[in-house]
Amino acid sequence: MKHFLRMFVQVCLYFYCKCLWRCLKFVVRKLTGQCELQRICYNTKPGAARTMKIEASLKGSKSKRLQTSVNVHPDAIEKTIDDIMELKRINPDINPQLGVSLQACLLQIVGYRNLIAEVEKLRREPYDSENPQHEEMLLKLWKCLKPNSPLKARISKQWCEIGFQGDDPKTDFRGMGLLGLYNLVYFAEWDTEIAQQVLTDSLHPKYREVTKKELSQLSKAEWEKKKFDKAIGYSFAIVGINITDLAYNLLVSGALKTHFYNVAPEAPTLTHFQQTFCYLMHEFHKFWIDEDPLDIMEFNRVREKFYKRILRQLQNPEMALCPHFAASESLINM
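The structure corresponding to this sequence follows.
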C-alpha cells in the first residue's frame, strides 16, 4: 500500500511539473502579457534570488535553445540574449532593461560554471618541487607568515611552525593540489595581519570566554582543569588545505551560488573564491574556539558542524559571506 501511494504521488508530481505547471505559466502570460523571464526580472531584485530563478526557468524550459543558453561561451552571451528575446517575441526597444537584466544573470550563471572548471584544474594540478613557480609560491607563504624568521633550508622542520606535517610541505598538497597552496598564499599575502594572528592562535590557542552560568556550575578546581584540557590548537596549513576542500565542495555542489550571485555583479572569479576561503578560515577559527574541542581528534566533528552551519546560511537567498578583511573591500564594492 505504501509503495502504491508513493508511486501515485510521484505520478501526480510528474503530471504537475510537465502539464499543470506549463498550463499555469501559459495562463499567467496571457493575463499579464509577460513571459516568465520578464516576470522574474521585473518582480525580483538583482542578486541570487533573481539569477537562480532565471537559471531554473531556462533549464526547465521545453525549448532546447533556452536550455542550452546557460552553457554558452561568455563571448556568446549577447547573441544568446538576442536569441532569447526573439524566441520569446519580446521587443528589445520596448523592453530595454530586460536584456540588461538577462545579460547580468547569464554572466553570473556561465561565470559560475567556468569558475568550477578553473578551480578543478588547480585542484588536479599536483605540486611540483621541480617547478620554479610552485617553489616561489611556497616560499612566499613562509615569508608572509614568518617575515622575521628566515627559512634555513627548503627541506626543514621549520615548516611545522606554520602547520605542515613534515619537513617538506609538498606531500601535504596531494589532496587539493595547487588549489590549497593558492588559497593559503592569498590569505597570507592579502590579509597578512589576520593570517598571522590566526597562525599564532592556532599555535597558542585562546580560551573561550566563560559565561556566568558556566562559572556557577563549576568549582574553581574543575574550571582550571577544564580550561587546561580544552585549550586545543591545530595545524594552520593542514587546516587551510582542509578548509580549501570544504570551499571546493560548497562550490561544486552549487551551494556557493547564493553567495557569488550576491557579491559578483557579473561573472564570479577565482579571486572571489579565494576571498571566500579567507572568510571560511577566519570563521572556522572562531568556531573552533567556541566549540572547545577536547582534543585534535574532534576536528572532523567540528568541521562537519561548521560545514552544516555554512550550508544553512547559504540557504538564505540574501546571504553573502562578506568577510571583514582588507582584501574583501574591493570585491564588496564591485
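The mean pLDDT is 86.
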